[in-house]
Design a protein that fits this description.
This protein has 481 residues and is α+β, with helices and mostly antiparallel strands. The protein has helices at residues 2-15, 18-68, 76-86, 121-126, 168-218, 233-282, 287-319, 330-347, 368-382, 429-435, 441-451; strands at residues 93-98, 103-106, 132-137, 142-151, 157-167, 325-328, 351-356, 362-365, 389-397, 400-407, 455-460, 466-473. The strands form three sheets. A five-stranded antiparallel β-sheet has the order 2-1-5-4-3. The chain has a five-stranded mixed β-sheet with strand order 7-9-10-12-11, with helices on one face. The chain has a two-stranded antiparallel ribbon with strand order 6-8.
Amino acid sequence: MATISKLKRRLLLLRSSSQIRYALTYVLITAVVLVFLNVYTASTTRDMMFRSKEVSLQGKVQLVVSSLAGLERLSGDNVAQVIALLGDLDANRVTVTDATGKAVYDSLTKDNATGRMILFSEVVTALQGNVVFYCVYDGAALESRACMPIYNGSDQLIGSVYLMEYDTDLGAVIAALEMNLVRISLVLGTAIVLFSILFALIFSRRMRLILDSIQLLREGEYTHRIALWGHDEVGVLAEEFNKLTERLRTSEATRQQFVSDASHELKTPLASIKLLSDSILQNEMDMDTVREFVGDIGNEADRLTRIAQKLLELNRLEDAPKEDFVVMEPGPVVEKAVRLLTPLAQLRQIRLETKLDPDCTVVTRGDDIYQMAFNLVENAIKYNVDGGYLGVFLQRKGEDVVLIVEDSGIGIPEESLPYVFDRFYRVDKARSRQAGGSGLGLSIVHDLVERNYGTVTVEQREEGGTRFTLTFPFFGMEEET
């Protein structure tokens, strides 16, 4: 039953395939063209045969007319003598009539019409002074008739000459030619149909493979790949599909990791809040201890708030529509962020050193520069040592604008440097929680830098601590002259 169902499914797909419809349309168009070519070729061939026969038969009639034109009147004897002198005219019938339409000579031995009135339409028309030719193909032979009036030396109509040929040889040539055309057309048509069906099946198989892959993708199978080669549209589609599945796989892995990390980060403060609140409810405590526990609950709640704000910020960066670019000097913006965090640095007696060069114009979006500077300076203060050093420098290097934030803090181990921009990654989890870190600040900085077509690197300082370097393209402003 499964095999039958699969076969039915394939037949349904084949029947509804656009390529099959295109192939049938192509076959139909080809059939129409072949029929037209057959009809046109056969008609043209017959016309050529007819013209050839007309020239030949009228030449013979003209010869007889020229020979009889010298006679004053037509009689059976003198016409027979002239015809005998002309020899074999290679015609099936030669009939000569007088001016009244009575036959004075007829070459037929059976059903000879001599002495009788000839009422052929050709003869009647010729006795009216016209030259007549008629030819028809009856499927077996080419029947041709020609008739011409006869005038004597005084331009007096004295009769007519009628010739008829029944040419089976030319008829056989026409029949053979038309039969060959039909055979060739049938062979070509059959070949076209077979090749069209073959190409349709091949194309349908390739498209069916892509459709099956899309169904697997819809079911969450992000590791599936399409093994199709070629540079045509289907090959490009398969390649783009593989790129899409790879991106979806990466996104899904990132999403799962993000959910796992977020759940873990949120679980810790929630567990602390639960434990502290249960301790207050289940144990008898003095007010000082209660206040201490409530304070700890507040700290954990603040930590939850910070994590939620960071997550919302990351979500905004990923999903929000891109803002328009603005051209700006980053110096005043960086100075504002440093000024806002200076009181926090003074509490820990951290020495601040800033040098913000002018003429460092960049193109950025919204307040991205401010957020990057604020996060880096805040991190440098949080993870610094009391009485330490914090340096913020903005300078132009060639075609780049470089923002450096360095500190003399606890530093980052060499093995952790490649991961500091990963979400929820923290070098020292205990110390990070103590400093109120969520492991998301540097991820936000990384995403903001990439959004502004820049790069960010991190390294250890020789004097101890960490140095973050942000590099952006310089946007030179041309002055109007």
